[in-house]
Amino acid sequence: MSKMDDKKKVADNLNSLFSRYSGKEKLEKEIEKLQSHLLEMEIDKKRLEKNETNTKKAIAAKQEAEQKLNEANVRIETLTYQLEELRNKGTNENSFSLIEEIAPSSFEPYIERLASITSGNDSFITAYTTYEQMQANEIQGKLTNNLDQDTLQLLKKINSNTGYVLFYDNMKMVCEVIVPPTPITESLLEIAGSFNVEPLTKLLDREMTVCVLATHAGESLIGITSDKTVFDEDMVIRSSVKAKHTKGGFSQRRFERLRDEDIAHHADKVRSALKDLLASSMIDIDMMFLCGDIVLAGHIVDEMNIEIPLMERNIDARIEKHDTGNILRSIFSCRRYRL
Prior knowledge:
Helix content: 40-55%
Oligomer: single chain
Largest sheet: 6 strands, antiparallel
Protein name: Peptide chain release factor-like protein
Low-confidence stretches: none
Number of strands: 11
CATH topology of the largest domain: Nucleotidyltransferase, domain 5
Domain Actinobacteria/chloroflexi VLRF1 release factor: 210-304
Structural class: alpha+beta
Shape: globular
Strand content: 15-25%
InterPro entries: eFR1_2_sf, eRF1_1_sf, VLRF1
Number of domains: 3
Keywords: Coiled coil
CATH class of the largest domain: Alpha Beta
Order of helices and strands: HHEHEHHHEEEHEEEHEHEHE
Distance between the termini: 111 Å
Coiled coil: 24-89
């Protein structure tokens, strides 16, 4: 071996010895480990960003699907009335030409368009009818001389626990009925050259704090909102409830009894949570809306001696984890009938 090789070997040994005692190798390994960890974190970050994007897309897709479902439900009701019209064709019984829900975000343009229509003579009828007057046919009696029999017949078909507003042109260019989400408290009958939309606008713009009870067997929602768009606080209560049994005989009766016990247990849980929510509320509740399974909701509140005015809303009150506001949008929508 040459002297040059000996020197190189000695130098390598010294470098190795220096590295071990100086901690260089340890630092290099630590750096490699950190770089590997950093790479893993970058991969996780990209995966999380992708998941977040997918979640946003999923929520957007769900909201679009809900809108289409609501449109489909309205379409079904419209077709139901059209079917009824065909069945009653021989009796000359009329039906509505359109039934639809107007969401809170879409109602302002609708009102503005109605208010913009004017006539040179007093040919526009505006009638605000309370629920009590609907039961007694009071307003309809006053309108007998101004409305045709077909229109009066259709007004009797409107099912509402809040009353309705009629916008009617005697030339039948405008024949609309709006059912608001909250009760009409004062009646009004006006015949003029334009429609009086001010009371309806005030009713819909009224500031109020409401409590919502949306019940289903095994899953219910309670919440309080002060602006009608989002819940200030809400809670979903879940319980284990057996699915419905389709078989007959003793087995079915026993299964149904166990299911009823599960539902009763769920009702107790919801009632307890609702009591706590109302007791802890720092502001007065103006109204409580019951939706979903109305019978179950009624059973829950019947034993609570609630002094808050109760309103029932027959809406699609499905509880969505990422969008509980969909229930509020349905509750505060108006129903439109075209006569």
